Amino acid sequence: MPPEAGRPTVLVQFLTLGGADVDLYEYRFETRYLPIGRPYVGDVRTVDGFRWQCRGCGEVGQPALFTTDYLPKELPEARTHANSHASACRSKPRPSGT
Ligand SMILES: [Zn+2]
User: Fold this and answer.
1) What strand order describes the sheet that includes 21-34?
2) Which distant-in-sequence residues (6+ apart) come within 8 Å of 28 by Cβ?
3) Is residue 5 part of a domain?
């Protein structure tokens, strides 16, 4: 799914303790990591990976130790992290609904 204006197509949602959604969705981004996984790097390329974001506090998830989005093979890790965040986050839905 290409990044588009507006809300992306959500694959999975989790509910925070305060009632906000944590959305997990496909996310296209550029990376130097190779398909065989981290920490192998090559030339910059575009991949269809994943990202999650809390609609309450706004936090955006990242794989452990890396400041990037989740690679195509990292959906299970992204799902686990999003669920863990929802289990601990007490934020409520934003009044604007965004
Ligand atoms: Zn949160």
Assistant:
1) 10-15, 21-34, 37-54
2) 1, 2, 3, 46, 47, 48, 49
3) no
CA of 93 to the centre of ligand 1 (A): 9
Q: Is residue 97 included in any domain, yes or no?
A: no
Domain-embedded: residue 83: yes
Distance 53 CA to ligand 1 centre (A): 8
- pLDDT tens string, the chain, 98 residues long: the values are 444 556 688 999 999 999 999 999 999 999 998 877 777 888 999 999 999 999 999 999 998 777 889 999 999 999 999 999 999 999 999 887 66
Domain of residue 28, residue span:
10-88
- How far apart CA 84 and CA 81 sit, in angstroms, is 5
